[in-house]
Each structure stands twice: as structure tokens, then as C-alpha cells.
Here is the input.
Amino acid sequence: MAAAPNRQVFEAAASWYVQFQAEPPTLAEQRAWQLWLDSDPAHLAAWNQMEQLQRHLGTLPPDLKRRALNNGQQRRQVLKLLLLLAGSGVVGWNAQQHSAVWADYKTAVGQRRSLSLADGSQIQLNTDTAIDVSFDSRQRLIRLRGGEILVQTGKLGDQRPFFVETRDGRVQALGTRFSVQQLADSTRVGVLEDRVSIQPAGQTVTAQILKAGEGADFDSRHISVVHPFQSSQVAWINGQLIVLDARLGDVVQELGRYRRGVLHCDDRARNLRVSGTFRVDSSDAVLANLQASLPIHIRYFTRYWVSISHTS
Here is the structure.
């Protein structure tokens, strides 16, 4: 296994990132970056972790994001932000990257997978997902290390409780079909059939029941307000992303989960509205269709770096 990237490598990755954010790279810069990327496995690992940061930056306050990525002179601030996020567990780079290697089952970026368990349960793994399966005499336990799963519990009459555990707490299936996604700072649950019980890790938080058609986010101390949950939100099991009057920025962020590299959308384009059904495994075709129907321009600086900007 390649050694984990050190601070110097992270700083180099941050430098490239800020340079590309500040202005489109020249052909010579693209080639230099590709040579750097290919010269050491640690460089690729650091860049992959930069991709994770790019996805999570959407959850940070906009003023902090602008200050961090404003220009090349701010690369030290970017590096500090990287290290802060890694240390706080928001992204959990090293721990998550290395623990995923040892997961019982996992998918790569852009890959999906179906599992049949011994109790008859069916587990669907979305892109970039890792789980452990631990069945014993007392319980059936799925540990979600990262990513997103859809669970259909078995119909064989197994009386052992069925749990999905994340870093934020546990979800208990009550004869049901439901999804669980590990977000940057919380866990998202949606119920399609029957019920589940959400129990945050904090001992003072009371468990809450969700019924079919309901969803909620939770962390170790809080459970969000219950919101509607529809089957279209798990269309990924069929390789689809279905949206109705959604922000382009949110659609781009979701598409970014299924492809390697940075998929960047500028602030003006981010608020355009989008409706449609898109293939998550054909993101380049999706981007071409979006460009044909919206006032946006898409530039491929490299196959790993795509920028979307408003044209007016």
C-alpha cells in the first residue's frame, strides 16, 4: 500500500488546486500537473482527497470558501483548511481512505454493487461506498464507513434486530426498505417501506421513528425536522438522477459523486434551475445536454477538471 500523503504533498496539491481555481490552466500547466500527478502514488492520493474537499466545500460558509480559494496567495489558508477538516473528521481523509481498504464490501467512484446477505436481506451500494457486515447471535449489523446504501431487510423471519451504524449513531430497521447516506457532518435516512428507528450516538437524545415516505438527517446530538422522502431519491440504484426544479449547483455536486476529478460550478451558474432524468454513469453526456439547454459554458481543462460558468 502506498504511503499516506505528507504535509508537503498536501501543500503541493493545494497549490495546484488554487492555481486552477484562480484562472484556467494553460496547456503547459495541464501537462506539468499531469506529470506531477503521475510521478508518485502519494500525489494521486492527495489529489483524490482534494476532490473530496471540493465536494465538501459546498457545505462551508460561502465567505470562508471565497477567502480560501480566492487566489494563489491563499494556498496556505487552503492547506490549513485541509488539515483542519482532516483533523476534525469532517472529511476524515486518511482514516476513511485507509479504513475503506479493509472494508468487507466497497465500491469505487462511479461504481454500484448489489449484495445478498445470509438472512435474505438485500444491500445496494452506491458510488464510493464501504460497509462491514457483522452478524452474530444477538444482532445483524451493517457498519457504513462512507457513502450510501439502500437496504431491503430479509423476509425469512429472522428475529435478531437489524441495525445500520454510522459515526453519528444507529438506524434500526423495523421490517423495512430504507436508505442511509453518510454526509460530511451528519447521516441522512429515508424510508420507502414500513418504519425505522433513528438513535443518535449521544446518550441524551431520544430515538425517533420514521415512517414510509419520511426522511431526516441526524448527528450524534440532534435529529432534524422530518421531511418528505420519495422513491426518486434512490433512483441511483437504476443509474439515474431525477430532479425537479433543482439548483444546478446541487445537480453538479451530485454528479460529482460519480466521477473522478473536480466538477466546478461558478456562483452565477449555481442558482440556475434544472429538471430532468439524468444517467449518473454518463456525466459527460449530461453536461453536454445541460449546456445545450441552459446559459452555461463547460470547459474541460483536463479530464479530471471541468468548469461550468454562466454565459451572460
Q: What stands out?
A: Confidence is low (pLDDT under 50) at residues 58-65, 86-98. Residues 6 and 73 are 21 Å apart (CA to CA).
